[in-house]
């Protein structure tokens, strides 16, 4: 009996050891799973907060890659580079992420370095202020929902805003800011020789550099409301005098 009891303790001891080994293995598995996720190449897509009516869609190019992004409702695709889903989001495949709880229309998009492209179709019937940053490089940005705030950042950027009451800032570089398909938009060329196209009720500010401003029609309501070339030798057409 004693021998059996001893043997039993030994067995239990081995079971404990085995259990410890399994626990260690599981912890190790968790660790090894975390390392590839941390090291995974790809831009990050996540919600902040991760759910609810104010959950904003975040896009961050943390790898300095070329991005070619499309946002359509709660789905983000990048035709040029892989995506890694974070809080509130999940990968459909390596270039596609969906964020099931995203319906606010709020965005914080950072395209990071390189010459990137984005089309934001947004969410139908939502017009909350949202933000897109081209950052470094010559970026092409098209924003369709109302109330966007688009910043080209450094480089020669092309920004096309098509909503209502949106704004575009070209940043340093020779930019093209196009509001011909929008209404009541604010365009700021900032530094560089910029081209600004307005439309109904637009406010065009060339700011520093030799800018070309086209208000589309010198008479409201079809044309721009204000065309101000700012410092530099400017060409101003189809604007109210
Ligand atoms: Ca980029
Ligand atoms: Ca840029
Ligand atoms: Ca500029």
List the helices and strands and how they pair.
Layout: H1 2-39, E1 43-48, E2 56-60, E3 68-72, E4 75-78, E5 83-85, E6 90-93, E7 96-98, E8 107-110, E9 117-122, E10 130-133, E11 140-143, E12 148-151, E13 158-161, E14 167-169, E15 176-178, E16 186-188, E17 195-197, E18 203-205, E19 212-214, E20 226-228, E21 235-237
Parallel strand pairs: 1-5, 2-8, 3-9, 8-10, 9-11, 10-12, 11-13, 12-14, 13-15, 14-16, 15-17, 16-18, 17-19, 18-20, 19-21
Antiparallel strand pairs: 1-2, 3-4, 4-7, 6-7
**Structural class by helix and strand composition:** alpha/beta
> What share of the residues does DSSP label as strand, in percent?
25-35%
Cα shape: globular
How are the strands of the biggest sheet laid out side by side? 6-7-4-3-9-11-13-15-17-19-21
How many angstroms does the end-to-end distance come to?
108 Å
- Helical residue percent? 10-25%
Count of runs of 4 or more consecutive helical residues:
1
* Secondary-structure element pattern, one letter each: HEEEEEEEEEEEEEEEEEEEEE
Provide mean pLDDT, rounded.
88
The distinct bound ligands, ions and cofactors come out as:
calcium ion
| Rg from alpha-carbon coordinates | 26 Å
Total count of strands: 21
Give the low-confidence spans. Answer: 1-11, 16-39
Give a quick account of the main beta sheet: strands, pairing sense, barrel closure.
11 strands, mixed
InterPro entries: Hemolysn_Ca-bd (IPR001343), Serralysin-like_metalloprot_C (IPR011049)
Pfam family, one: HemolysinCabind
GO molecular function: calcium ion binding
Keywords: Signal
